[in-house]
Amino acid sequence: MASTTIPSFQAALEELLLAQTVFVAGLPLTDGIPSPGTFDRRDWVALLDVEFEQNTAALNQTTRPRDEFYSQTVLISVVAAKREDAQSVASDRAWEIFAAIEAAVRANPTLSPYYTGDGYIIAATLTKNGRLRKAVTDDSRESSIEFTIDVRARI
């Protein structure tokens, strides 16, 4: 029996997202923040940190089931070449990517059939907390959205 569903969830989430049109069109999805310069002047999405907790679900002597709750942080980064409307272009694209991720998770909160690990995902939902950040360099504008996907699982 697995000690956590997190690695299997992350693999399933990656598979689910890569099947979405926005990713099929070449949007990179990384495990952690990409190295500087890897996607210079390109959009990317990264699966970042996970906060988790486990609780005993029942006093079954044989299986000792546990409920697991965790939050997968996701970061979307969009860079637009500096021009008059660059910030709004970058922000609009970031929200477009966010909407695609949200739609995929909302349509398939158990990540079936992508999740194949021990235990099972009860529900995955986008959290109510998120953050849009805007930045500027000498020749570009960036918009990034950081949010979490909250998961409840049973192992």
Q: Can you characterise this structure?
A:
Helix content is 25%, strand content 41%. The protein has 155 residues and is an alpha+beta fold. The protein has one domain: Alpha-Beta Plaits (2-Layer Sandwich), CATH 3.30.70. The protein has a five-stranded mixed sheet with strand order 1-2-3-5-4, covered by helices on one side. It is elongated, with a radius of gyration of 17 Å. The model has no long low-confidence stretch (mean pLDDT 89).
Low-pLDDT segments, ≥5 res:
none
- Look up the CATH topology: Alpha-Beta Plaits
Task: State the share of residues found in helices, binned by percent.
Answer: 25-40%
CATH architecture: 2-Layer Sandwich
Notable features of this structure?
3 helices, 5-stranded mixed beta sheet, 25% helix, Alpha-Beta Plaits
Short description:
With 155 residues, this protein is α+β, with helices and mostly antiparallel strands. The chain has helices at 6-18, 21-24, 86-107, and strands at residues 29-31, 44-56, 66-81, 120-136, 140-154.
List the helices and strands and how they pair.
Blueprint: H1 6-18, H2 21-24, E1 29-31, E2 44-56, E3 66-81, H3 86-107, E4 120-136, E5 140-154
Parallel strand pairs: 1-2
Antiparallel strand pairs: 2-3, 3-5, 4-5
